[in-house]
Give the backbone structure.
Amino acid sequence: MTVAAYTPPGVGMLAVGIVTEVFGPHGEALDGFDFALCTDRPGPVPTDLGVPLTITHGLERLASADLVIALPWAGFRTPPAPAVLGALSAAHERGALVAAHCVGAFALAAAGLLDGRRATTHWRFAELLAQRHPEVTVESDALYIDEGRIITGAGAAAGFDLCLHLLRREHGAAMANAVARDVVLPSHRDGGQAQYLAAPVPEDCRDERLAEVLAWARGNLHQPLPVAELARRAMMSKRTFARRFTAATGTTPHAWLRSLRLGTAEELLETTDLPVEEIARRVGYGSAAVLRDQFVRRRGVPPRSYRRSFTNTP
């Protein structure tokens, strides 16, 4: 996969670090990507921290990339040059995936790529994006929104969620999980999860009792795991547990468990020859039919079709 990150003058250094960390080298244990930063004019490019980056690739890099990512920049209120907008549009027209991190969405909107679509950006600038581009349905609460060949993500560290989602979608849960482990991150957060949370992810939960219960649940997916049992283990009432859980994770216990079960099922489908019936048992679904129903509803394809996409297993 060839990945090109458009790096405009005034680019956010955090965003540069995120895409480089995810798509850059990870050692011999993981397949690498043909990754490059590119900009309007190769050479020193100023950043939001005042430290210039030397970028050797120009916009021609966008013409051959499988994945193009528009990074955020300090001057996002002014649209990029016509040549940039043309390069982004051309990449989309030839079939490349086009994504935007944070206020990089303003570049895609200026290119007309978000017209008639849902999109997100940093919650602080969502209203501005909606005002300037009323033809775009802006959802300020989402971590990322996948519209097929156009994907937009929220601000700051949510860029990791966007990039890991792209890895998971294009290369499977096993690779996304491996990269997440390498950079010491949770492997998956649903795109609909709230952008701003008291404690962003369950894995980093500061509530010791709640964290212990979440760890126990991850190790016991084969069980039904009703909320009442989780609350009992946390020594809380169901109502208190649900409130504390949502405050810590930005989602409900049911939604978190469903995401965990399906993510684990994905990885087992990709990396093992286990029958679908056994996978369903291991992730806590009563039968292969129940797993299939959930898989089709949430992933769009049945488990066996998903397996064929990543392996040669029938």
